Structure formats: structure tokens, C-alpha cells
Amino acid sequence: MNTIVSIQNLSKTYDNGFNALSDVSLDIREGEILALLGPNGAGKTTLISIVCGIASATGGSVSVGGHDIEKEYRQSRSLIGLVPQELHTDSFESVWNTVNFSRGLFGKAPNPGYVEEIIRELTLWDKRDSQIMQLSGGMKRRVMIAKALSHEPRILFLDEPTAGVDVELRKDMWKVVERLRQQGVTIILTTHYIEEAEAIADRIAVINRGKLLLVEDKKNLMEELGKKALYIHLVKPVDAVPDSLSKYGLSLSNGSLVYTYDTAGSGTGITGLLNDLNKAGLKVRDLETRQSSLEDIFVGLVSRDAEKAENQTSDGAAS
């Protein structure tokens, strides 16, 4: 699969000394959906802003469709559609004129049929003659999406597109995303709804404190880092894990024992655990397995990175 966005050794340091990005390298494949995950302040929006030409990098390079974003700004920017977190529209203009104007900004010839298709798909047709200021927050978000798609981009950045919006808009948004995927459009998504990323993304990238922690195919990530938890529901719930079972690293959940194991390991250890449960006089009522979700994996990665940073700070202070 061809690379359509190439980010190499990208860094961004603000005038106040804050290091928003540190040596980030990432190749985004043509036609894929990449979910960029990270906590608030991780560097997601900064990264998107640089690629889209809104902010300047202090180091590294970015090319879009083979065009350097600084030397060939017009060519690279014409390939990109952006739905930012913040709503920026002309409050006094109509929906129809706003979307058409955005198309014209990129030098595209008028195409009323295409604009109508977008507006209808985003359930805006009844509001096409309404001023933006008359619309609800959810409707304004739909207009932002329509504006981003107006010039038929090959790459679409969605920066928290469904944050704070209604369920209906979220459903409409993912219908549009699916249509674009089928047309070969590359989509980069940031979201706090990790279940959305798990449902639609091809690959997952995790960023924290301006550093890229991981980039992996979603399926491989779930297989490599995902763990299963065996919930052992006992006939008589317990208040504490017996000392004889301490080697299994069990935890408690509402009187049941929870055993976490690696699905990629050479052995699960479940047989030995069940034998030792019997020896401890604990009778099993039921067994239940649960697979780790992408959210579990994400939280684990970020927590380990934060712990690593804290340890480095402590070591530096000690020395």
C-alpha cells in the first residue's frame, strides 16, 4: 500500500519552551483509516495542524501526496480536508453558500450536484438556506464536515469530530466515513470515544507527551497486547485472595476471583489455577472470560509512559 502522508522526525517547540512534539515519524497509507489516540495535551492537534499547514514545525519534514508541505503548499493542502475541534464558520452566511465557497477556495469548478449530495448525506438539506448562526451546535458540526469534503479531498483529518454531539450525528458521520473509505479516501481520526476507533480503524497510533508510543495494525495490536481475564465466580464469594493462590496474581471483583493471562503466551496457567482452587476448598460456580478492549490497551500504554517519565524525573533529581 502506497504512503500518502510521510512525517519524518517532526518536532515542535513553542516560544515558551513547551515541547509539543518530539521526533515523530509516521507514514500514513493511502486509503486507510488511522486512529490517532492520546490524552489531552498529547500532541494530536499540533501534529494535525502542522500537516494541514496551520502551524509550523521547528524540525523535521512532512510530505503529502509526494508534495512538501512548505515548498509545495498549494498542492499538498488541496489534497487535505480538515474537520477541526473548534467551529469556525461565517455566522451570517447560509449553509449552501458556505459549502460552495469552501469548494471555490481550492479552485474547484462549481458542482451543485456534488454539494447537494454532501449536504443531504449530512442531513442538512432542510437547512441549506439557513444562516449558520441559526443552527444548533450539532448542525454547525455537520456544516464543518461538509466544508471539509467540499473540494473532494484524498485525505480527511477528523479532529474529535463527534465530541459533544448527538448520537444521530455520530451515526451520520460514520456513514460518511464508510462511503469515503470505499472511495479510497485516507482518513486520520482523533477521538476520545475509543470504541469508535476500535470499530472503524485499520491502524492505531498512540501519542503521549509529544512522542509516538506505538503504531500498529489494529488486529495485530489486539492480538499482541490484548489480554484475557478469567472471572471465576465462586459458590461462596470471598473477601480476600487466599495466600495459597498468591502466585497467580489474582484480583477481586464483587466476591469473584479475576485471573489475567496473555493470550500469546506459551501457556495460560488456567489448569493449574483450577487445581489449586480445588485444593484451597473453593468451589467454582461459573467461569467467564473477557477480552481486553482497545481502551484497556490504550490506558495501559499511557500509564506506563507516565510512570517511565516520573521515574526519569526522580532519577534526575536524585543525581
Report on the architecture of this protein:
- With 319 residues, the protein is α/β, with parallel strands linked by helices.
- The chain folds into 2 domains: 3-222, 3-Layer(aba) Sandwich (Rossmann fold); 227-291, Alpha-Beta Plaits.
- The protein is 35% helix and 28% strand.
- The chain has helices at 44-51, 73-77, 95-105, 112-121, 137-149, 167-182, 194-200, 218-225, 270-279, 294-318; strands spanning 3-13, 19-29, 33-37, 59-64, 67-68, 80-83, 155-159, 186-190, 203-208, 211-217, 227-234, 251-253, 256-262, 284-291.
- The strands form 3 sheets. Strands 6-7-8-3-9-10 form a 6-stranded mixed beta sheet, sandwiched between helices.
Topology of this structure?
Elements: E1 3-13, E2 19-29, E3 33-37, H1 44-51, E4 59-64, E5 67-68, H2 73-77, E6 80-83, H3 95-105, H4 112-121, H5 137-149, E7 155-159, H6 167-182, E8 186-190, H7 194-200, E9 203-208, E10 211-217, H8 218-225, E11 227-234, E12 251-253, E13 256-262, H9 270-279, E14 284-291, H10 294-318
Helix pairs in contact: 3-5
Number of structural units classed as domains: 2
Q: Which structural class matches the secondary elements?
A: alpha/beta
Give unreliable regions as ranges: none
Question: What fold name goes in the CATH topology slot of the largest domain?
Answer: Rossmann fold
